[in-house]
Specification:
GO terms for molecular function: creatininase activity. The protein is α/β, with parallel strands linked by helices. It has a single domain, classed as 3-Layer(aba) Sandwich (Rossmann fold), CATH 3.40.50.10310. It contains nine helices and six strands; from the N terminus they run αβαβαβαβαααααββ. Helix 2 crosses helix 9.
């Protein structure tokens, strides 16, 4: 097997066209951070989802040693109509978002890359991303999607200190990660001060205030978490977030995402529609099969 050739940087936008072509010919995989620009309560910036998906994706890509993993420019805008009651939210319409995802993926595959991963940082993007990936894969385009926090979820959830033992929105998890990745001490202190005193919120925001039951969660049904103008804009327990928790969560999340990148690149995957049982269509691994 030919040894992979690693470029001088893994950031797509900092490479020349010739360098990107060399990465492609060396069997590189491309990962695309996707996020959202939307309100994150009074303590986190509207760029939180895009920033976290970008940082985590870049850190995970650097840990992969089996092949080069190029990190494409982040798609910052997502599907966020449920946050539009609050200033600062910029949402693409569903049809626009699906079209943009498709154009990005098709551009990369048509230029010769054999495996693409959208790394999602916003829960509201999940359903559109999965639907689009389903269409792309059956159309013959080798594209996957993963939410950055999911591969390590079973390991980082027990590290949470607050009342909501899962991810939410502008929650302990996101707040702790933003503290760990803050540019300076002043920014971290601003986040801590703004989150201080926020009461835990463990009932989904789709339930009207004061109603005691949540039939949507109980049945596993679907309803977007509508954050209207009278809403505090968060779901979880951000007040208990600490830099230390964020550092622990970040290490787990990055390590498990890097493992997913490596394992996914080495896995033969069914691709497209093949009606001949003797000739199934398989997307070949980018790296040698694991022993």
């Amino acid at each position: 097997m030919t040894e992979p050739v690693f470029p001088r940087t893994l950031l797509w936008q900092d490479l020349t066209s010739d360098e990107i072509a060399a990465c492609r010919d060396s069997g590189a995989m491309v990962v695309v951070p996707v996020g959202a620009i939307e309100q994150h309560a009074a303590h986190l910036p509207v760029e939180t989802d895009a920033r976290l998906s970008t940082f985590v994706t870049r850190l995970a890509a650097r840990r992969v040693t089996a092949l080069p993993v190029l990190v494409a420019p982040t798609l910052p805008f997502g599907f966020s109509p449920h946050h539009l009651s609050h200033a600062g939210t910029i949402s693409l319409r569903l049809e626009t978002y699906l079209a943009v995802l498709g154009d990005i993926a098709v551009s990369m595959v048509d230029s010769g890359f054999r495996r693409i991963v959208f790394v999602n940082g916003h829960g509201g993007n999940n359903a559109p991303l999965r639907a689009k990936v389903g269409q792309l894969v059956t159309d013959g385009y080798p594209v996957a999607t993963v939410e950055y926090w999911v591969p390590g979820e079973s390991q980082w959830i027990p590290k949470l200190l607050g009342a909501l033992r899962r991810g939410g929105h502008a929650c302990e998890q996101e707040t702790a990660l933003m503290l760990a990745l803050a540019d300076d001490a002043a920014e971290a202190e601003r986040i801590r001060a703004a989150a201080r005193g926020m009461p835990p919120r463990t009932i989904q925001p789709w339930i009207a205030p004061g109603y005691p039951d949540d039939p949507v969660t109980e049945a596993g049904a679907a309803w977007p978490p509508i954050f209207q103008a009278d809403d505090g804009g968060y779901y979880g327990d951000p007040a208990v977030a600490t830099v230390e928790t964020g550092q622990v969560l970040l290490e787990i999340i990055v390590e498990r995402l890097a493992k997913f990148f490596t394992d996914f690149a080495a896995a033969p995957m069914r691709l497209g529609v093949s009606r001949d049982p003797a000739r199934p269509s398989i997307a070949q691994p980018l790296v040698g099969n694991r022993t």
